[in-house]
User: Fold these one by one.
Assistant:
Number 1:
Amino acid sequence: HVSRPAEVEETRKDLPIVMMEQEIMEAINRHPAVIISGQTGCGKTTQVPQFLYEAGFGSKQFSSRSGIIGITQPRRVAVLATAKRVAFELGVRLGKEVGFQVRYDKKIGENSSIKFMTDGILLREIQNDFLLRRYSVIILDEAHERSLNTDILIGMLTRVIKIRQEYYEEQQKSLQSGGTVTSECQITPLKLILMSATLRVEDFVSGKRLFPNIPPLIEVPTRQYPVTIHFSRKTEIVDYIGQAYKKVMSIHKKLPQGGILVFVTGQREVDHLCEKLRKSSKELVVQAAKRDAYLKKKCDDGSFGGVDMKEIAEAFDDGSDNQNYRFSSHGEDPSEIGDGNYDDDFEEEDMYESDEDRDWETVDDGFASSFVEEGKFDALRAAFNGLADKNGSVSAEPTKTIAAENQEAEQVKNTFSPGKLRVLPLYAMLSPAAQLRVFEEFEKEERLVVVATNVAETSLTIPGIKYVVDTGRVKVKNYDSKTGMESYEVDWISQASASQRAGRAGRTGPGHCYRLYSSAVFSNIFEESSPPEITKVPVDGVVLLMKSMNIPKVENFPFPTPPELSAIREAERCLKALEALDSNGRLTPLGKAMSHYPMSPRHSRMLLTVIQMLKETRNYSRANLVLGYAVAAVAALSLPNPLIMEFEGEKKNESKDADKTVKQEDKQRRKDRKEKIKAARDRFSNPSSDALTVAYALHSFEVSENGMGFCEANGLHLKTMDEMSKLKDQLLRLVFSCCKPSETDDGFSWTHGTIQDVEKSWRITTSSSSKYPLLQNEEELLGEAICAGWADRVARKTRATEYQACAVQEPVFLHRWSSLINTAPELLVYSELLLTNRPYMHGATRVKPEWLVKHAKSLCVFSSPLKDPKPCYSSE
Ligand code: ADP
Ligand code: MG
């Protein structure tokens, strides 16, 4: 029995999916797999688990449905927010009936019936129990996003439901013929539900690759209000953030109440735009109050008749502030300022431009001119705006009586002055509490502006959004499988994404979407939909996972969209280099051990090499410390460099800001910051390895009393350091849980000490923090392990900081923030090749030729001969 809070009952009534509960449950009862599609916000994520729960799934009372209800999300943000919401709707505490689990966080009880998790978590669970016996239903949410993990899960789960059905039938047969089955061995069929925000489901249902019987597709009609799309006439290529800023401000000043959702590409853009908007909001409020008071006074005085333009000008021309306000430094058309809210009886239709391909400005002009004809007060306002005109001449014929003017003045007082902006950021790396702020209540006078990355496209429905500002961009990671070169690029979104984004505006009423690109760009340049992740990323982890699950021929696995054969071959080559596969492509014991670690095979190879080598050493006394350090180094190599992040973040702001004073302040701040980072780099620097440098910084960070202060003082990126610290703890737990020494000791379990021993030695050495904790031979051990993990990413110096990397034609470079920059060793391995203005090696570690001989075997063949032949490492 479920008793929901009254307010929930009220809002649920309005969700279209609630009307379809019966139809959905019937389909689920009749079929092993069901696809549900419905626009974002229709209630899929929050309601379907509740339907199942109410139907007895996840309840001990029904033996056939006693397994729990699992729901996966591609994004951590969505897991937390929706679990919390569902618990609230069911009137229970989070962690009781409804729980969740993400990589760093978990709140789930023994008796939980509903479990929200990331797709990565379920993928790990399926590795340990392929039949997922704990579950009676699995919901794969946001299947349309085609995340790598969800795609793999879809393929696997189609097999799982088949096998569970077969087992179940066998059991029933044996029961009928008098056999017995203990309750632990009892198996029930599994239900699979795919949920999608789009109707593009053909990859899931075509060709019987996944499902022998095509599952029913249930479409949830959405009460989607019309959203008027406004294309920009021109497409600003570089400063789309500036455009977004302008658009938000002009919406705020002119258009009626309603939240604004802005789509940008990354955290830096979000923060930058938020800051700018907050600043403008403050200025606007001050100015509006001033003007209000002035106009009110004028009205009260009755001194309307002979308005002295100069007087008005002086009244507002009080220095830089005002300058900012009237002629915004961002080149805003001054005539835009302070319009809309004067007009009480505008016609909604006229206010917005509905003709797709017109420039907004045209409409704005028309809109502004409609004011001038009415009355003196408007004339005054027009005059005021007219101040900004170059010629400064506005004819304001006084036509109304003083009484009427006063009345209008009253109205103006009540309707004018665009309120404060409530500016909130939203991106994946934001702390959970900050993420949930978009759902909080706020004051009526405020206008909500959410500046978001792609997370707001489908995963979260933010209430009260009426306007969407779409930059049309998204940040994508491009990967060149041949060279291993990665680059983050800001790219155009797909047409499908664009319509998803626009849809966010029509949830609570008719809305408007302002696209900061032209319709020509939209139809000629945008792809129809974005390609599934699996076709874009290296699949070494996928292949290792498959091999460890006894799926020998990865190319035969039923992926919704299979990866390129060449990508599979490349992954196999890499896994052979890491000795996870033998020359016949079979999983080695090392590979098996690696597959237990939920991380890139390179990282697990490095960790396991450290463990192996430490077991071989005689000196056990410091082994726990070295292991702790190894784990920190893996954490360091898994995340962006916190030194570089901080620096680049500052640099980015520079080019964008046209404001002079801000620029100067910024300049000074940046300079200070740069100095700080330089000093920090020197302090933590390990000239033989970037990974060890960052590991040492992490070390110092963890024992510092005030993490935030420590990062501030040392120019480290706080969020990255926090994440790294958590990752390190988690990896350490993995080392001890993944390789239990008990059963089959495969040589990879840690027997020198306990997890507490490792943590203790880590803490002891840091407390005497001025001394560098590692000895030279220990550093070399870690260097060799890193070499083993990146054995195919070797580079040899050609001159200065220029290197030649195996299998890469063009020269590659040490990054100026690398700790190897001053020593520039002859040979090194790098963890990433990132193409910015030129290819930079990140995560570099000096290596010795003998390590290469040992670990890189015949892999390291340089693509072109050196100009100046040097004694060259040969693989033989
Ligand atoms: P879908 O999964 O179909 O996109 P959801 O189930 O996420 O839809 O959302 C249904 C409704 O519940 C939406 O109106 C949304 O705004 C609301 N909602 C979802 N999560 C929360 C939350 N954490 N707080 C408040 N409202 C929420
Ligand atoms: Mg959803």
Note: Residues 15, 38, 40-47, 81-82, 84-85, 439, 461, 463 surround adenosine-5'-diphosphate (ligand 1) (CB under 6 Å).
Number 2:
Amino acid sequence: MFETIQQGLGSALKSLRGGTRFTEANMREGLRSVRRALLEADVQLDVANTFVTRVEEAALGREVLKSVRPSEQIVQIVYEELVNLMGPVDSSIRLNSGRPTVLMMCGLQGSGKTTTCGKLARMLHSQGQHPLLVAADLQRPAAIEQLKVLGEQLGIPVHFEDSKNPVSVCQNAMKVAKSQSRNVVILDTAGRLHVDDELMKELEQIDRKVGPDQCILVADSMTGQDAVQSAKSFNDALELDAVILTKLDGDARGGAALSIKEVTGVPIKFVGMGEKLDALEPFRPDGMASRILGMGDVLSLVEKAQEAIDEEEALRQQEKMERGKFDLNDFRTQLERIGQMGSMRSLLEMMPGGLGNMLGEDADPEQELKRVRAMLDSMTPHERAQPDVIGASRRRRIALGSGVQPHEVNGLIKQFEQMRGVMKQMSNMSMMDRMKKLVG
Ligand code: GDP
């Protein structure tokens, strides 16, 4: 995800590298490339312009810092402004005490609204809440059935009726919630292919008559500026409380993630990272900004890993990383664990040191991982512990054993060494320093 903007911003910022002085000319040149990179990532024109102006103002304001290299200064400022652009975010869902909290979910057809209702219900359920899903999308023929299936999978009740009136479905659902002691009611409202008057009227009616506590828009990140425009229209009609941006896992550009808050004033609270019901994550602008700037999203990875790895083992591995003692044996263990953690590509992209870059653009991550694993399995434990001993003949043997070319074995080892070096250097650094290390 985010490959386009990563590459664009990466090369824009790297073009500033090497300059020892911070001149207006080299800064302007760098900022022009930053702006271009944002536009290529489908960031709205106004947002891109405002962003660059803010970076420029901040940079000029800080010119006194003569000891800092221009590249470092710009990277630092771009990072801060990216975080400001997308945040701040409070990704908790505030719940009422005493009466059910009603979340009205809206969005265009195909945005992932029904799936996201299920994801949200699952998340709240896992936090000890008692959600009720309500099938109020009476437009899309299969929507009710889809929600029923999701509810069954999750063991969460679904209220549905054979009705043409979404308002009364929602009103009845409130009675059901009370009688069944459900404390969060999630309304899956109708979507249409485009924003139109009829849709908005229906949603406004539900809004007026049912009085939801929060109105949440589900928007498809892959639709870029269209997602931003529809967020604007929904917000004009309904005063949104939050946006959930779906399909970020497949979004190479990231324009919607960067523009929505600036254009609408509504924060993105969660992001959809896959089709599965556990693929909903809190939106973290700092993690997103560092990922865009190519340093991997260490915190998200740690959160994920904590779910899958027992803590003692994780600590042991981390200590090894910090001491630079992490070897290919540990790497192989990690890969196995990663296999249990979910989507390969999204996990690898979160790894610092560009582990995700080991995968080609069109590569199938699962296949690539099999390949890497095959190479590791063709090494002896000693070779994995001390990759230095792998010379030309061992390389040929490993390649033969795993069905790859010798240079691929070499590539794996080189990238592993790089990753290990970066991890070691980063272990004692602040977030900012880590980023400078990688970009500057
Ligand atoms: P609705 O018409 O808005 O209710 O959309 P659906 O919930 O039926 O979702 C449309 C399609 O998007 C389905 O194939 C979902 O599996 C898929 N989808 C939803 N969220 C995500 C996501 O975060 N990532 C990916 N890759 N697919 C998603």
Note: The longest strand covers residues 214-220.
